Amino acid sequence: MKPRLEIRFDKDLRLAFRRRKPAYAPCDNEFLLNHARSGLLLALQALGLPRGSRVGVMALNCHTVMNAVAQAGCRPVFIDVDNNLQLDQEDLQRKSDGLRALIVTHLFGILNDIQAIQQSFPNLIIIEDCAHAFGKPIEGSFGVYSIGQGKMPSLGDGGILLVNDTNFINTAQSLYNALPEYSKWNETKLYLRLQLSSWFNSRMLYGWLSMPLKRWRKPQSGKETIVMKKRSAGVQAMLSLRKDSVKEMIERHRATAQKEIDRLNSNPLVIKTLVGENAFMLPVLCSDVTLLKTQYAQRGVETATHFANSILWAKEFGYQGDCPNTEKLLSELLVIPVY
Q: 11, 60, 115, 229: least surrounded by Cβ within 10 Å?
């Protein structure tokens, strides 16, 4: 069985992690953290917003985005998503009164038009969530990348915050300096976790062991505490090793994705196939998610109903049922892995 996430803790990465060399050197406006969610929280904290401030988030999303807003003492305002899986600017217009900031998530690497949003809403501070769009140039005040497992590059852990507005750099730097470092014990635990995860997600073990074990896991709750730390030194070394090969990886994924798109476009179940800039997974809108999922399982490929719990999570943060297109899309969305 081909897992839905690409997780490779190979020999080169293991060696870089253990030696902590070479070390990725961040720019002055770049902050390396333990998770992308920590980057979102740090960005919101740097804004210094009053408690209870309204922050827009896309309703089709990960619970970590909602948690970052809540933990910053703000209130999430859920914005609908259109059929291209981009932020619905008409819905944003309806809900823009009192918004202090907006987190724009580039879902599955499908880029939103940040300049258009800035022109229509010049007073909104924009934080770009680029967890699925590594390397995308940041046009908002902040941008956050992920290098966690299943992302691109998939390094198992870590996030990067870019501060694109000089007005917030000093505050972000002060907040970052106060964060704890990874201890030697935490580095060791992370190394072992990456090794085990790589094994359990190998095709040799996944179908008969790892996939059945996953069925025993309890559904994930939306609310959780974000524990912020500076980057792992081992992950920082792995990032230095992989950062220059990301463009090559993207080109390879695009070529593979095109073959899969051709297959999907000939499938009568498929309503629409979308592809992001990095093409490391393909979101598909289809008439029967269960049947399409079964077809891929018969080919030995695990697919995902990505963000399937978005609305359930959003309800934990005050969602009032005012994003109807997101709810419709969740009944049609299946994500195909590309690697």
A: 11
The amino acid at 38: S
Q: How much is the CA Rg of the chain, to the nearest whole Å?
A: 20
- 23 falls in which pLDDT band (50, 70, 90)? confident
For strand 159-163 and strand 270-273, is the pairing parallel, antiparallel, or unpaired?
Answer: unpaired
Closest CA to 105 of 117, 97, 94: 117
Secondary structure (3-state) at 169? helix
Residue bearing tokens 């950062």: 243
C-alpha span between 33 and 44 (Å, rounded): 15
DSSP assignments along 218-250, one per residue: PPPPS-------BPPHHHHHHHHHHGGGHHHHH
DSSP state of 178: T
User: Half-sphere exposure (CA, 13 Å, Cβ side) for 106?
Assistant: 31
The Cα 2–Cα 206 span in angstroms is 8
Angle between helices 233-242 and 184-200 (to 10 degrees): 50
Two structure tokens written together for 274: 């979308």
Instruction: Give the single-character DSSP code of 210.
Output: I
Distance, CA of 4 to CA of 2 (rounded, Å): 7
Measured CA to CA in angstroms, residue 110 lies from 136, 199, 243, 326 at distances of: 11, 30, 21, 16
Cβ-based neighbours of 141, under 8 Å, separated by 6 or more:
43, 125, 126, 127, 163, 164, 165, 168
Query: In this structure, which amino acid lies at residue 33?
Result: L
What whole-number distance in Å separates Cα of residue 8 and Cα of residue 194? 9
User: 255: part of which helix (H) or strand (E)?
Assistant: helix 246-265
The whole-model pTM stands at 0.94
Using an 8 Å Cβ cutoff, are 232 and 179 in contact?
no
Alpha carbon separation from 77 to 4, 211, 314, 327 (Å, rounded)? 30, 35, 10, 16
pLDDT in tens, 104-156: 999 999 999 999 999 999 999 999 999 999 999 999 999 999 998 888 888 88
Burial of 247 (0-12, 13-18, 19+ CB in 10 A): exposed
